[in-house]
Structure of ACP phosphodiesterase:
Amino acid sequence: PPYQVAVLVGSLRQNSFSRMLAHALSELAPPTLSLEIVEIGALPFYNDDLEADAPDTWRQVRQCIVTADAVLFVTPEYNRSVPAVLKNAVDVLSRPFGASVLSGKPAAIVSASPGAMGGFGASHHLRQSLVSMGVNVMSSPEVYVGNVAALFDHAGALTHAGTIEFLTRFAIAFSTWIERLSAR
Ligand code: FNR
């Protein structure tokens, strides 16, 4: 069976370019990968006090990561950093202390921006958090998708040939990364 990849998208916007990218990645990924978006918009802000009777949404998202073979982060950049909704999801997934469902997971980061720098700042702030909790973040190829607003057609399909080619190589590399780190 293909590796199950949980995809966390750092934007809640209906017409989010990051979400479009996540869908494009799902379609161009090799048959060894099965991508599924895990929704993070309804997670209450992390609060240790809630752990005694953790919210259902926290439990569900944590379970999604437990059963996934790998995690793919697709995110825009907000003020040179990680959008709060995604940081909150990472915080929720990092706890309870010592029981993070993310630690040890193979992961990769795709950042995107309508600007030229492709969300570099968000990518590296996210990487810093993930590395600190023992997530096995793939280091290359790095993916910073710049000028993202120009890459899709009106139906939201990725049409830019160079980006399709690059993301295809990225997805193959990610599959190899997951295989190397997985026990099967
Ligand atoms: C942005 N945007 C942005 N872009 C960027 O390249 N660097 C940045 O630091 C920021 N900061 C920022 C802050 C906030 C609060 C918002 C709402 C937006 C612009 C951002 O890249 C753009 O809105 C993207 O389209 C957001 O991604 P989605 O929603 O299309 O996936």
